[in-house]
Structure formats: structure tokens, C-alpha cells
């Protein structure tokens, strides 16, 4: 066994020990003797026997890393070893679930379940039991409390700050995702269309489509201007100008979420300049990440940088301050600067102030902002500024009081390039930050 493996196992062991101590404290504070966490299960399509896609409940995955386990239960009862009931039926239709091994087998009591439903009741003797997961309240045993809001808020808060094991998982996921982005760029350069770029990405990251943490966004030309573009054209366009790839990888349940934008040899030179401009100010935003920074303030700085780029490239003729004030920058970039990242791509806790779940809503001008907190060490965030040509958002300015503030001939020239987004995954450290999306692609420009 290598020292690298030893180190990974040491980190995982420390992670589980941290969870045991944290859960004991949270349950005591909330007045519960135990919590039973359900992994969840897939539904079926209406009038069909085919299952929908599935991903395990985040608080279950926080312990186990088993993001695709269905019908599993995890019992956390302070004073006893955590007990994992894993669903492993005798089945000739599907491959049976193997017993967990390694650190999980060492630190958790494992018990296979042959049937779906509640785990053996003899193991649950808590006087006050919390049950969390996607369950029907009518199925609860007498006295159990389903999804207590205060408990969920405290557990969400626990996931906001990542330990060394989680940081390692996120770094590994990023390395795989970076390999996928390199393959996607190479495929695009070779003339591939969206579907073939997606297949190249999956091959490079060694994933099936059911394993990616979110549906990959592969947009060529104007498709890059649809923020969550959800299709893959089979054929490449006659004149490929731009490619936007927003795609990740999952490692032990932890997600990478990386976006890159590339210009082809057929792109408008101004588009290449804008891609470089977004890269430049994305790095300046990342450089500011540190404990105590208000993420809402950083989001507002994104709009200031975007406005300055629009002025510098003469896309607009008003001042940067006026462009932000009148909402023009929000027409060019309608989404938030980033979000919390972890087991879920848009991870929990981003809009709450503390472990009591005190709401921390986004500013009225930025309802899509998913992270509204002051940053602290251990938080992992995405930094993903964008610049898009989206006709429906620009139309009010084209026909309104600010119509002379924009060079519409240039906007029309750029419309079939779609848009630009550059996204890295960054952990806040005690003395600043560490970009988990390492140098392979960062060094490109």
C-alpha cells in the first residue's frame, strides 16, 4: 500500500471521526437521541417500469460517499458505532451490491438488507428519533420526527466547511474534469459537433452519463448563450465559432463543476478578446477570496469588472458605473458569480446565515445568486463570471431609453457566438484560498 493511499485513508478516517463528533453535538443540542438517514430511491416514469435517474441524499453521501446507493439507511446514535444498512437483495436481474470495504468497513457497522423498507427495528431504541430523507410522513414509526427543520439546518451548516478528506475528493474530481475539458477542446478543434464532444468528454473522464454530477452543457455557437443548454446537436455547424463546456466529474460523491469557453479560428476577433477579458477578471475575483469576504460584495464586483470590459471593448458607450446602475450588465450576465460546491453541485447552506438556518436571501437585483454568505475557511465556492449575447434580455435596452448606450452592430455580430463563462472551484483557507481547478487549463491565457 502506497503512502498516498495511506494518506487518503487517514483523511477519510479523520473525516468520519469529525462527523461522529459533530453529529453527537448537534443531536444533543436538538434533543434527539439518534437520527436515521435514508439514501433515497429512484421513481419510475409514469405508466412505465423504467426508473428515473437517481442520486443519493446528500447527508447520507456525506458519511458514505455512496451517491448511487438506493434503499440504504444510516443510523447515527451517539455512544454506538454508526450503522449502515445497505440494500443488497438476492437478485439475478441486477448485480448485487457488494459490502463496503476499507475505512468504511472499519468505522461503520455494516448490515445488508434483503428487502426495501425500514431497517430491523431491534437496532433502533432511541426515545426521540429523527428521520431525514425523501420519505412519506405517514410511513414514520410512532414518535419519529421526519425532517425536523432545525436539525436539517444544522446538518446543512456542517457541510458548508470541508475537511481535508473532502478537499482531496474535490481536487481529484477537478483533475478528472480538467482531462475531460482538454478532450472536449481537442474534439472541437478537430471539427466535432456537440454530441461527439460530449462523448469525448465522457471517455476522457471515464464516466457514464448517469454518473456525472449534473448534465453536461456542451454549446457550440449561439447555443452557448443558453445558460443551461440541454441538447447535443448530432452534426457540427458549417461554421463553428465558439464552444462553451460546463461539465464536471464526481469522486466519492464530491462534484467538480468547471466551465471553459473557446474561440475557433472562425470566431470574431472581438469574441477572442472578450474571452480573454473574462478570464482576466475571473482571476482577479479569485485573488480576493479569503475568510471574512462577503460573497455578495464579490458578486457586485463581478458586475463592475464586466462593465469595465464592455467599456474597454466599446461594446457600450456609457460609463461602467452607469452600466451597472441601469441594469445593463445584468442583461449581459443574468446569473450569480458562483455557489457553494460539495456533495451537491449547488450545495446546501449557501443562503443561510448560521446553523439555525437563519435565511440570508439574495439581493432583489440578483435573485439568481445562490451564495449570499460571508466566506469562512473550509468553504468551497465556484467563481464563474459570464458575458452572453441573449436577445430576450437585451431587447428592453435595444428599444428603450438606453438604446444609444450599446453598439448594436457589434452585438449582432457576436450573437451567433452565444456567450462566455469561465468557472473554477476554489476552497477558502485560513490565510486565503486554494484553486482546486489546477494549472492545466488556467495557464492557457
UniProtKB/TrEMBL annotation:
Binds 2 manganese ions per subunit. Residues 173-429 form the Peptidase M24 domain. GO terms for molecular function: aminopeptidase activity; metal ion binding; metalloexopeptidase activity; phosphoric triester hydrolase activity; proline dipeptidase activity. Mn(2+) 1 binds at residues 257, 339, 384, 423. Its cofactor is Mn(2+). One of its GO terms (cellular component) is cytosol. It catalyses: Xaa-L-Pro dipeptide + H2O = an L-alpha-amino acid + L-proline. Keywords: Dipeptidase, Hydrolase, Manganese, Metal-binding, Metalloprotease, Protease. The keyword Protease applies. Mn(2+) 2 binds at residues 246, 257, 423. The keyword Glycoprotein does not apply. Its EC number is 3.4.13.9. It holds the Pfam family Peptidase_M24. GO terms for biological process: proteolysis. Residues 13-155 form the Xaa-Pro dipeptidase N-terminal domain. PANTHER family: XAA-PRO AMINOPEPTIDASE 3, XAA-PRO DIPEPTIDASE. Splits dipeptides with a prolyl residue in the C-terminal position. Belongs to the peptidase M24B family. Bacterial-type prolidase subfamily. This is Xaa-Pro dipeptidase. It comes from Salinicola corii. The lineage of its organism: Bacteria, Pseudomonadati, Pseudomonadota, Gammaproteobacteria, Oceanospirillales.
Amino acid at each position: 500500500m502506497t503512502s498516498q493511499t495511506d494518506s487518503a485513508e487517514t483523511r477519510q478516517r479523520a473525516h468520519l471521526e469529525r462527523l461522529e463528533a459533530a453529529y453527537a453535538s448537534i443531536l444533543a443540542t436538538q434533543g434527539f437521541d439518534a437520527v436515521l438517514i435514508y439514501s433515497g430511491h429512484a421513481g419510475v416514469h409514469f405508466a412505465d417500469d423504467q426508473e428515473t435517474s437517481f442520486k443519493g441524499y446528500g447527508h447520507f453521501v456525506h458519511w458514505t460517499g455512496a451517491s448511487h446507493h438506493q434503499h440504504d439507511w444510516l443510523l447515527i446514535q451517539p455512544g454506538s458505532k454508526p450503522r449502515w444498512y445497505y440494500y443488497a437483495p438476492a437478485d439475478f436481474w441486477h448485480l448485487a451490491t457488494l459490502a463496503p470495504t476499507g475505512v468504511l468497513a472499519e468505522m461503520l457497522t455494516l448490515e445488508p438488507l434483503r428487502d426495501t423498507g425500514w431497517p430491523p427495528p431491534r437496532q433502533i431504541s432511541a426515545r426521540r428519533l429523527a428521520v431525514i430523507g425523501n420519505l412519506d410522513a405517514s410511513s414514520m414509526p410512532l414518535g419519529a420526527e421526519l425532517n425536523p427543520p432545525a436539525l436539517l439546518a444544522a446538518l446543512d451548516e456542517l457541510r458548508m466547511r470541508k475537511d481535508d478528506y473532502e478537499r482531496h475528493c474535490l481536487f481529484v474530481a477537478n483533475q478528472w474534469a480538467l482531462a475531460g475539458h482538454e478532450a472536449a477542446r481537442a474534439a472541437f478543434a478537430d471539427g466535432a459537433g456537440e454530441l461527439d464532444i460530449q462523448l469525448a468528454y465522457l471517455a476522457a473522464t471515464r464516466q457514464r452519463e448517469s454518473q456525472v454530477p449534473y448534465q453536461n452543457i456542451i454549446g457550440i455557437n449561439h447555443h452557448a448563450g443558453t445558460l443551461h443548454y440541454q441538447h447535443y446537436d448530432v452534426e457540427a455547424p458549417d461554421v463553428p465559432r465558439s464552444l462553451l463546456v460546463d461539465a464536471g466529474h464526481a469522486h466519492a460523491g464530491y462534484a467538480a463543476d468547471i466551465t471553459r469557453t473557446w474561440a475557433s479560428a472562425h470566431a470574431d476577433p472581438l469574441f477572442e478578446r472578450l474571452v480573454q477579458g473574462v478570464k482576466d477578471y475571473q482571476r482577479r475575483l479569485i485573488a480576493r477570496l479569503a475568510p471574512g469576504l462577503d460573497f455578495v460584495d464579490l458578486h457586485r464586483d463581478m458586475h463592475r469588472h464586466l462593465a469595465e470590459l464592455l467599456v474597454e471593448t466599446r461594446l457600450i458607450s456609457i460609463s461602467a458605473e452607469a452600466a451597472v446602475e441601469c441594469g445593463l450588465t445584468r442583461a449581459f450576465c443574468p446569473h450569480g458569480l458562483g455557489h457553494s460546491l460539495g456533495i451537491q453541485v449547488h450545495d446546501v447552506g449557501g443562503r443561510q446565515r448560521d446553523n439555525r438556518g437563519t435565511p440570508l436571501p439574495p439581493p432583489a437585483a440578483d435573485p439568481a445568486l445562490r451564495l449570499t454568505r460571508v466566506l469562512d475557511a473550509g468553504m468551497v465556492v465556484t467563481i464563474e463570471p459570464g458575458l452572453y449575447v441573449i436577445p430576450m434580455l437585451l431587447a428592453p435596452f435595444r428599444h428603450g431609453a438606453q438604446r444609444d448606450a450599446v453598439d448594436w452592430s457589434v452585438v449582432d455580430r457576436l450573437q451567433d457566438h452565444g456567450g462566455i463563462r469561465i468557472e473554477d472551484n476554489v476552497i477558502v483557507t485560513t490565510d486565503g484560498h486554494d484553486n482546486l481547478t489546477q494549472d492545466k487549463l488556467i495557464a492557457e491565457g
